[in-house]
Amino acid sequence: MDSWFVLINVIILLVFIGLLIYMQKKHVSFSKRVFTGLGIGIVLGVLLQYVYGAESEVLAQTVDWYSIVGSGYIRFLMMIVVPLVMVSIIQSIINMEKSSELGKISAWIIGILVTTAMVAALIGIVTSTVFDLDAAQIEAGQAEEERGLVMEERLTEVEDLSTPQKILSFIPSNIFLDMTGERPTSVISVVIFSMIVGIAVLGLRRKKPEQAELFTKIVNAVHAVVMRMVTLILRLTPFGILALMANTVAKTSVSGIMELGKFVIASYVGLFVIFIFHLVLLALFGLNPFTYLKKALPVLTFAFTSRSSAGSIPLTSQVQRETLGVEPGIANMAASFGATIGQNGCAGFYPAMLAVMIAPTVGIDPLAPEFIVKLVLIIGISSFGVAGVGGGATFAALIVLSSMGLPVALAGILISIEALIDMGRTAVNVNDSILAGTLTARILKKLNIKQFHDKTTLDEKMVL
Q1: Which of 85, 347, 401, 464 would give a disulfide with 396, using CB separation of 3.0 to 4.6 Å?
Q2: Nearest-5° Cα angle at 291, 288 to 297
Q3: pTM of this prediction?
Q4: End-to-end distance of the chain based on CA atoms, in angstroms?
Q5: Is 363 helix (H, G, I), strand (E, B) or coil?
Q6: What is the rounded CA–CA span in Å between residue 248 and residue 5?
Q7: Under a CB-based contact definition with an 8 Å cutoff, are residues 312 and 74 in contact?
Q8: What digits encode the pLDDT tens for the residues 281-295?
């Protein structure tokens, strides 16, 4: 009998996918189709949980089938990340006038990412204090205790790597291994390899211009093919968001939200403040934040739904290059670095909130100046090296809490609402990547101001 209910649920999803296809044939804009998919996904997820219950076998099987569309879309995006990053960065460097520009671009991007992560940590501290969040006030069940034990076990893995070792892990020793995405730092390693290839071509152009010209033609041809692949995959975005959102909402623990409602509200208030801080930075650099927001919104919606910073790289790069007027080299590096370094939501805001919540349980005053200074500095350093151990917000929290001498097991109390909070964190992470590219281009006078203020959005540029 259960299989019939699962079949009905799959048919319902296919009907909604058919609706989105119909909208595409009627030339409804990309953004409207994305938000339609988001809205339908939320409603569908609520209905699935209401009808079958969060723990039912029917829902579990339905989610598995829906994952073919949702997780399948994420896999397609991950598939294109390495070739996109590699070819785009090589092409961008080949087109640079001086290889010395590369150092300036990298320094500004990383500097902005790490600095904003430290500001995000301060916002996390203030948020926890204002909402009076205390880990001791939250009751931990069996699932939370088991998650806490797992975090303690994984702490050993984290402590085995010093910060210099995490940074060293960025340097590729086997580029073919990194092209498979096997290591947490694979994307950064591919970026470094691509930079070296690009610099080598610039040197070759002076000594053997014919070979350099031939290689440039090959790279340009491959780049055109890869960009076409990106466009084809991004056309699936409304369908992927529909399935991803339905699964996320259907599996979200309502009881967990009720129990930890104050933490959920506090988290989203803090993340919203970080987002406003990003927009204020744009205004300070003479850029219209509302124009920026209109163009970045489809990308942020995808990041919110998918909970994947790495999967967002193609869109993050595309929106900078095609609509915000960021030079391609800067856009590609900002998208790549931003997926693993200085993540404002996961590596800045979240660990700071946890540290302030947990500190009172071991008799530490979280508002003591020395505690705050130490916490912000540790977050700044760990946000640069957190990619070396992978695992996003969980590993960032492990590094920060252990460095502060705080018990990591208590972080397991938030397991029931992890997915709900992670959506907001990922959107903030991706926004910071776009911000870093845009501000770097502005500072180095490589931002096309006319294109930035142009009203053309991602819809028209990508013909989706």
Answers
A1: 347
A2: 130
A3: 0.80
A4: 40
A5: coil
A6: 19
A7: no
A8: 999 999 999 999 999
